[in-house]
Amino acid sequence: MSEPTGSLRPFLRLLVPHGRGMLLGLLLACLAGGAGIGLLALAGWFISAAALAGLTPLTAHLFNLFHPSVGIRIFAITRTLARYGERIVNHDITFRILENLRVWFYRRLEPLAPARLRDYRSGDILNRIVADIDALDNLYIRVLSPLIVAFVVTLTAAAVFRRFDQGAALTLLIGMGAAGLALPMAADRAGRRLGQALARHSAAMRIHMVESVQGLAELLIFDAAHRHQQTIVRCQDSLIRTQARMSHISGATSAGLTLLSGATVGLVLYGGAGQVETGRLDGAVLAMLAFGTLAAFEVVWPLPAAFQYLSRTREASRRLMEIVEQAPAVQFPNTSPPPEGNAIAFENVTFRYASQEPDVLRDFCLNVGQGERVAIMGATGAGKSTLMHLLARFWDPDEGCIRIGGRPLCTLSEDHLRSRMAVVSQQSHLFNATIGDNLRLACPGADDGALWDALHAARLDGFASALPEGLETWIGASGHGLSGGEARRLAVAQAVLRNAPIWLLDEPTEGLDHTNEQLLMDTLLELSAGRTLLLITHRPVALHQLDRIVFLEGGRIVEDGPHHALLAAGGRYARLFQSIPSG
Amino acid sequence: MNPSPTHTSKPALNWLLRHARTARLWILLTVGLGFGSGLLLIVQASLTARIIHGVFIEQRPRAELMSFFIFFALVVIGRAVLAWAREIAGFKAGARVRTEVRRQLLDHLTAAGPALTDRHEAGALASILVEQVEALHNFFARYLPQLALAVLIPLSILAVVFPVSWTAGIILAATAPLIPLFMVIVGMGAESVSQRQFQALSRMSAHFLDILQGLPTLKLFQRSQGAAQRVAEVSREYRQRTMKVLRIAFLSSAVLEFFSSISIALVAVYLGTRFLGYIHFGTYGSPLTLAAGLFILVLAPDFYLPLRELGTHYHARAEAAGAAEEIMQVLRTPAAMPPVADVDATPAPPIDIAFEQVRFAFEDGSPGVLREVSFRVRPGEKITLAGASGEGKSTLLNLLMGFYRPTGGTIKINGRPLETLSLRHWRRQLAWVAQQPVLFHGSLRDNIRLGRPKADEGAIQAAAQAAKVLGFADRMPHGLDTPVGEKGHRLSRGQAQRVALARAFLADPPVLLLDEPTAGLDSLNERLVIAAIDAVGRGRTIIMVTHRMAHVRDTERVLTMQGGTIVEDGPYRDLMAARGPLFRLLQPPRKVGHHV
User: Fold this and answer.
1) What is the pLDDT of residue B8?
2) Residue B184 burial (C-beta neighbours within 10 Å; 0-12, 13-18, 19+)
C-alpha cells in the first residue's frame, strides 16, 4: 500500500480494550470457516474411500464407517453454531467499539468548538463527519475480521494440505493469496480514481438538484426550468458513465475470483492426478483436497468488499484526524480567582477569524461599567457579533486584552467565565428534545413554574401553551418546527433562566412584529436591571431606555452616547432612527 | 418517535415491480447470464467428479483425462465471462430504471412547482432526487435477478440429481418445498436486521449530529463535558436494543446454514453407506459410481448458495422499498394547475390583471389564507401590498404566478381566466424578485442572464448597471465573472436582491413582482435596492409586497391586507390620513412612544 497506513493507527488503538472479545469472535469465525472446509473435504474423502472399499465385500466390511460419519456431523453442527456465535460476538464488539469511538471523538472535538470548527459549521459537513465515524464503526467487522479469518484459515488449510501433497498446498496458497489479496488490491487501485470522479459527479448533481428545488420558482418564472433540467441530466449521464466503468471493475473482479477458484481446483486436481498415477497419493485424499479447495474459497469471498471498504475507511479516518489533531483555539486555566464585579473592558483589541481574512476589529476599545446597559449597533459585518464571540471566549483576540471584573479573560477558569454570562447568540442551537429539556439546559434544576416564567418573559408562553403537549413538545430537527424568531426567543428564555450577572444578547427580537418587539424589549429591560447588558441590534426600538448606544462601523466605534445625545448629534444613528416610520 | 413498520409496504413493492418493466430486457438478460453460469457450475461439478473417478477408481493415467481438464478450463473461463457480463447487464438494468425515475421526478417537479417544493425542506427533497433514486439501483441490478435465480438454480440441480439418485434427490428436495419458507425467513430476518439497524443507526447518528451542532450552546451552558456521557449512553442503548433484534434475526440465517450443512452431511453419509453396501436403494437398481456420488456431493452446497446470496442482497430490497416510498410521496403531490392544451391563448402586453373574489386555503392549514380578494391592476400601474406577516400577501403573488390554484374565484389576465392560459407563456410576462433570491451555481453574469441566456454583453452590462450590481461586482476579483451560489462567493442579501433585479431587468417583462425586497436590510443596502427598483421598474406594472413604507410615495396606491382580504385600497397619503388599518399597522401600539 503506497499510502501511509498510519492514519488508521489511532482507531486501531481504540480496538485494544476489546481484544478478548475480538479474539473470541475471530476464533469462532475461523472455526466456522474451518468447519465448512472440513465438512466438504471429509465428505469427499469419505465417499471416495467408501466407493473404493465397496468394490469388494471384504474391504467394505473392514471399512470404519463410524468415525468419518461422526466427523461429518460434528463439522456440520460446528459450522452452524460457530457461525451464529461469531455473528453475535462480532456485532456486539462492533457496537462496543462504536461507543468508544464516538466518545473518543467527542472528547477530542469538544475543546475545538466552535473556533476550530468554524469551517465545518454547515450541516452538510458535520453530516459528513458523522458519516465518516459510521464508516469507521465497521472497520473491525467488515475489514479486519474477514481479513484475519481468511489469513488464518488459508494458512491452516495449506498446512493440512502439505501433509498429503506439497504441490496442492502451494497451489492453494497461491490461488487464495491471489484471490484474497492481489485481486482486491488491484480492483481497489483501479477504482480509486473512479471513486474520486464518482464523488465529484454526484456532488455536482446534488448542487444542481438543490438549486432546482430552492430556485424552482425563479427557474419557472424565467423560463429556465427546462434548461436547468438538461444540466442535471448531463450530470447524471456523466455519473452513470463513471459508474458503468466502476461496474466493469467489479465485473472483472468477480470474473477473476471465478477464474482463480476454478484454476486452483483444476490445478489441485491436475497435480494430484499426476501424484495418484505415480502412487504417491491416495485417490480418496485427492477427492478430499479438491473438495477442501472448493470450500476454502468461501473465506475469500468477502475480501474484495473489505478492500473497497478499507480505502473508504482510510479516507474517513484521514478526514477525522485532520479535524481532531488541531490545537484548540483557546485554553482555560483549571482554577482562577473569581472576577471582581461585572464590568467589561475591551483594551486595544485587534481580531480576525483567519489569517487570510481582514481584521474584524482593529485597536478596539470599549468600557462597559458594572450594571451598565449598552446597545451595539451597526451594519452587517461591522463586528457586532464578534464582540460576543470574544467575550464568550470562543476565540482569543490577536492583540489587546479583554477584561471582566478587572481580570483578563484568559486568566479566568471556564466555569468562572461561563457561569457569569447568559448569551443569546445568532447560532443558539435547539436540541432534539422537548421544550422543557431545552430550557433546563440553561438551569438543570428549574421546575416547571420557573420554565413558564422564563417563557413568559420571552413572550413565548402563548406559543408554548397553545401546543397540545406544552413543555413536553419535541422540538429540534425532528420535532415541532420553530420559526427563526421563536427559536431566538427560546434562547432568550434560556438566558432568563440562567440568572447571570452579565447578559450578551444578539438580536433577541429577530422575527418579531412591532408590537411584540416592543413588549419583549420592555421585559428584557425590566429583567436586566442591575445586570451588565450588551444588546446587539439593528432595530432602534426602546433604545432610549438604555444607558448608551455604541455605533460600529468597520470594526471601530463611530458614535457612542445616550440615545438623546446621538439623536441630537444628527449622525448615523439619528439617520437610521429617522428612516423607521414609527419614529 | 414512532418506529416505522418492520415490513416493506405493498404499494412500494408494487411500484418497484412496475418500474422493473422499464428495464425488463436487461433484468431478463441478467437472470439468463446467472442461470447460464449456474448450468456451467453443474457441468464443472460433473467434470470434477469424473476426473477423480477416472484417476482413482478407473486408475487411468492423467494424460488420458486431458480432454476433461481442457473442458474444465473452458467451463471455468465461460463462468468468468458470464459473471462479468452479468455484472454489466445488472448495472444497465439499475441505471435504466434510475434514469427513468429521475426523469419522472424532474418532470413532476417542473409541473408541480413551488406547491411541491414549499412542502419539503430543500435538502431533503434534493436527497430524494439524488440519493434515494440511487438507492433503487441494487434492487434491479441484484435483488430481482437473484430472486429468480434462487428458484431456477436449485430446481436445475434437482433436475440433474434425481436421474442419478432419487434418495439424494429427496434429501435435497425435502428442503426444496422449504425454499419459499426460507425466503420468507431470510427475508424477515434480513429485513428486520437491515431496516432496524439502519433506522437505529441513523437515529443515533442524528443524535450525535445534534450534539455536535449544539456544541457552542452546550459550552455556554457549561454542559459540554457532560455530553460525552450522553454520547456513551445513547451508543450503549443503541447496542443493547439492536443486539436484542440481531440475536433473533441471525437465527434465520443460522437455520439456512443448518439445513445446508445437515443435508451435505446426510448426502455424504447416504452415499458412503450406499457404496459400502449397507443400503441398496436410491439409484433405480443400477450401481452407484463414484463419479455420480461426487457429482451429487459437489452440487449439495451449490443447492443452497443462491438462497444465501439472496440474503446478502436483501438489504437492497429494504433500501429500495424505503426509497420508493419517499419517491412515491413526491410524485403524489398534484400539480397546481392542469397543463393547458390551448397554447394559442398567450397573453400579450399591455397586461391587465384582475382578481375576482379569489379565495385560497392551504390543505394543511398553513397561514396565508385568502378570503374574497378582489382588485384590479392596470397596465403600468404600481401597487404596494401591505399587511402583517401571515395575512396572505405572498400567497397572492404565488397565485398570480400560477404556483397555486385559487380554491374559488378567478384571476383574469386581459379578461381571460388564468387557468385557460399557457402558464409558460404567462410567466414570460412576469419577473419576480423573491424575499431570498436564489443565486445559481455559476457566475454573476450567468445569474443575470437566467431568463435570456443569449443576451449580449451590452444588455447584461446595462442590466447590471441599472440594478446597481456593477457597484459591487467591480470590486470583486473577477467582476461579473465571479462565481456565486453554492461554493461560490457569498453575496449579502442586499447584493443578491440587486442581482435578482438585474435578472428581471434583462428579462424585460411587462410585470414585475417584488416580495419584501428590503426586509432585514440595513439602511445603506436598503437605499441601494430601492434605487435599483426604481430603475428597473420604470414603465412596468409593479406589484410589491412590503411592510416598510419609507420609500412609498404619497400618491402611490397601497392595498392593505388583513385577515386574508383587502381592507383598504387607495393612495398612501389618503390611507395614512384616514388613520385606518395601514396607519395602525405602521404605528406601534404603544402608550410610551418615542420622544422625538
Assistant:
1) 60
2) exposed
Pairing of strands A361-368, A421-424: unpaired
Residue A346, SS3 per DSSP: strand
Half-sphere exposure of B84 (CA within 13 A, CB side): 15
- Which chain B residues are within 8 Å of A544, Cβ to Cβ? 594-595
Predicted TM-score (pTM) of the model is: 0.80
The amino acid that residue B514 corresponds to is L
DSSP-derived secondary structure for A201-250: HHHHHHHHHHHHHHTHHHHHHTT-HHHHHHHHHHHHHHHHHHHHHHHHHH
DSSP lists the bridge partners of residue A347 as A401
Lowest mean pLDDT among A531-540, B190-199, B285-294: B190-199
User: In chain B, helix, strand, coil percent, each to 5?
Assistant: 60, 10, 30
Q: Is B384 helix (H, G, I), strand (E, B) or coil?
A: strand
The H-or-E segment that residue B413 falls in is strand B408-413
Question: Alpha carbon of A289 to those of A262, A271, A277, B299, B500: distances in Å?
Answer: 14, 11, 16, 16, 76
Q: Is the peptide bond before A68 cis (omega within 30 degrees of 0)?
A: no
Question: The C-alpha cell of B71 is what?
Answer: 473442458
Q: Which of A126, A414, A478 is facing B1, going by the closest CB pair? A: A478
Which residue in A63, A88, A183, A220 has the most chain B C-beta atoms within 10 A of its own C-beta, making it the best mutation to test that interface? Answer: A220
B479 CB-contact burial (10 Å; exposed 0-12 / middle 13-18 / buried 19+) = middle
Non-local (6+) Cβ contacts of B419 within 8 A are: B337, B338, B340, B405
- Residue B531 distance to chain A (closest CA, Å): 15
pLDDT in tens, B150-159: 999 999 999 9
Least confident of A231-245, A518-532, B342-356: B342-356
The CA-based angle B437-B441-B444, given to 5 degrees, is 70
Cβ-contact A211, B488 below 8 angstroms: no
The single residue listed with the C-alpha cell 433473533 is B248
Q: Is B429 in contact with B510 (CB distance < 8 Å)? A: yes
Contacts of B85 in chain A (CB under 8 A): 251
Bridge partner residues of A179 (DSSP): none
For residue A126, what is the nearest residue in chain B, using CA coordinates? Answer: B209
Whether A22 has a pLDDT exceeding 80, the answer reads yes
Q: Is the pLDDT of residue B591 over 60?
A: no
Q: Taking 50 as the threshold, does the pLDDT of residue B141 lie above it? A: yes
User: Cis bond leading into A114, ω under 30°?
Assistant: yes
User: Are A451 and A366 a contacting pair, CB within 8 Å?
Assistant: no
| Interface membership of A467 toward B (CB under 8 Å) | no
**Dihedral (C-alpha) A284, A289, A295, A300: value to the nearest 10 degrees?**
180
Instruction: Dig out the grid coordinates for A402 from the structure.
Output: 479583554
Burial A37-69 (b: 16+ CB within 10 A, else e): bbbbbbbbbbbbbbbbbbeeeeebeebebeebb
Q: How far apart are CA B494 and CA B502, in angstroms?
A: 13
List C-alpha distances in Å: B244 to A489, B198, B247, B541.
42, 15, 6, 67
Helix (H) or strand (E) holding B231: helix B226-275
A474-475 and A548-553 strand pairing: unpaired
**Rounded mean pLDDT, A265-284:** 94
Is pLDDT at B549 greater than 50 in this prediction? Answer: yes
For A:27-46, CB contacts with B below 8 A are: 39-40, 42-44, 46
| Cell 441599472 found at | B466
Neighbours of B465 (CB within 10 A): 14
CB distance B541 to B528 below 8 Å = no
